[in-house]
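Need residues for this backbone.
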């Protein structure tokens, strides 16, 4: 049996140690801050599968650590990613309205009710018109999404006509919703969706704006019992999944390439598919709980459409000031792409 000399042993140890250090250097654990509870479908059906996909495509070299509690409130999650406090976050552009004027076009009435088609259309519009806008600097955009049409919900009675909205206090999340409610004679009250229950319970508001799924998933079915449905959505909200750009650049080229295959349009579509599953499920459960659904009247839809026309005209001016070269082309591109994807 051949004996190894000390230099040979030392050389072998150095080689093994170098290999282990190299493997450790390649391994990356990325922190993810999420502001919904771990029982929410965005966590269980979107973030967890995404984390599994990242680990799979990078052969375990990159893993996502979804934190048990958020590192800030919903409105802070863009900055958490941009500043690198968290590596990856998701959130709602609506919570920083004056900052993200370029995204308003997708939050207008009639933006659609098929979330997967909406989300893919939004991603394509972003790539075509917005990816180099300075407002998005500092992050690697992983995905974008919409939620399939927000609707009007009330705690005491059905709302079908403009007259029935007058003086009613509604929670809302952004300037698009605020302008619509004000123009309809309602009283808008700004607050994130996570505060809706306590505000309804305390009588601060009479109703709240949500997609139908949120009434179920934020457990509002007992305090929001009447649901007014607009055929193409009363409003929408734009969402992001973003990663700190410097952290992204520190990943190996091989891992960045692997992850590119599961983000962008692919991740945006996955976002939308989850909402498309949740909406009909929510309608079924809310109906079984005794809640009522009514269609908005032609009068109410016509009033909202007139408000929409004014909003678009004003947004075009604001978007140009915010660095969008051709806002009308952006809006038309989104609408055409959505209609094509939705089969309309």
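Answer:
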């Amino acid at each position: 049996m051949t004996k190894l000399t000390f230099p040979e042993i030392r050389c072998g140890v150095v080689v093994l140690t170098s290999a282990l250090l190299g493997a450790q250097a390649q391994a990356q654990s990325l922190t993810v801050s999420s502001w919904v509870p771990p029982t929410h479908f965005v966590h269980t059906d979107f973030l967890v599968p995404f984390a599994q996909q990242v680990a799979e495509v990078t052969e375990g070299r990159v893993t996502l650590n979804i934190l048990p509690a958020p590192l800030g409130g919903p409105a802070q999650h863009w900055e958490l990613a941009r500043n690198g406090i968290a590596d990856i976050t998701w959130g709602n552009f609506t919570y920083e309205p004056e900052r993200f004027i370029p995204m308003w076009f997708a939050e207008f009435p009639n933006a659609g009710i098929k979330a997967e088609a909406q989300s893919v259309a939004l991603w394509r519009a972003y790539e075509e018109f917005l990816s180099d806008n300075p407002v998005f600097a500092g992050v690697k955009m992983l995905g974008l999404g919409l939620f399939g049409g927000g609707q009007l919900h009330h705690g005491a009675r059905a709302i079908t006509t403009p007259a029935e909205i007058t003086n009613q206090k509604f929670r809302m999340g952004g300037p698009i919703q605020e302008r619509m409610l004000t123009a309809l004679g309602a009283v808008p009250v700004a607050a994130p969706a996570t505060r809706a229950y306590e505000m309804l319970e305390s009588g601060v508001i009479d109703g709240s704006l949500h997609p139908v799924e949120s009434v179920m998933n934020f457990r509002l079915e007992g305090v929001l019992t009447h649901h007014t449905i607009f055929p193409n959505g009363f409003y929408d909200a734009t969402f992001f999944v973003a990663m700190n750009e410097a952290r992204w650049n520190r990943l190996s080229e091989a891992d960045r390439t692997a992850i590119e295959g599961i983000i962008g349009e692919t991740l945006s579509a996955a976002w939308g598919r989850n909402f498309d599953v949740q909406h009909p499920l929510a309608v079924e459960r809310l109906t079984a709980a005794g809640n009522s659904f009514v269609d908005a009247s032609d009068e109410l839809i016509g009033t909202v459409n007139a408000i929409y026309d004014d909003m678009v005209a004003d947004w075009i001016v604001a978007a140009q000031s915010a660095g969008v070269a051709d806002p009308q082309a952006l809006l038309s591109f989104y609408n055409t792409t959505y209609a094509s994807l939705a089969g309309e």
